[in-house]
Amino acid sequence: MDTIFLEQVKVQTKLGVPEWERAVAQTIILDIEIGYDFSLACQSDEIADTIDYGQVVGRIRETLAERSFKLVEALGEHVCQLILQEFKAKSVQLKVSKPGILPGLKALGITIYRQV
What we know:
Blueprint: E1 2-15, E2 26-36, H1 39-44, H2 53-66, E3 68-69, H3 72-86, E4 91-99, E5 107-115
């Protein structure tokens, strides 16, 4: 399995258990690893034979700007399913970080791994 990785993708979304926390979009950070077979793209040198990471990032930003989540876990599952279904990835490992949410805490977050 080959992997595309996208590090420190900054995204705006509404996220948090208290309603006031979801009132205004906040920045979250995503680290994404996408499993895919690159063998055809290695031979053809054509973007159509791989996953266009620019489209992935654009689609994630679009959907997270439209949605609101209470839990980091639900947001992570949403992003994983989007990548698996819309981009036909074989697997996704996603780290979601919510920086500076508590005093004295750099970030909190989760890591999720999903595969088809």
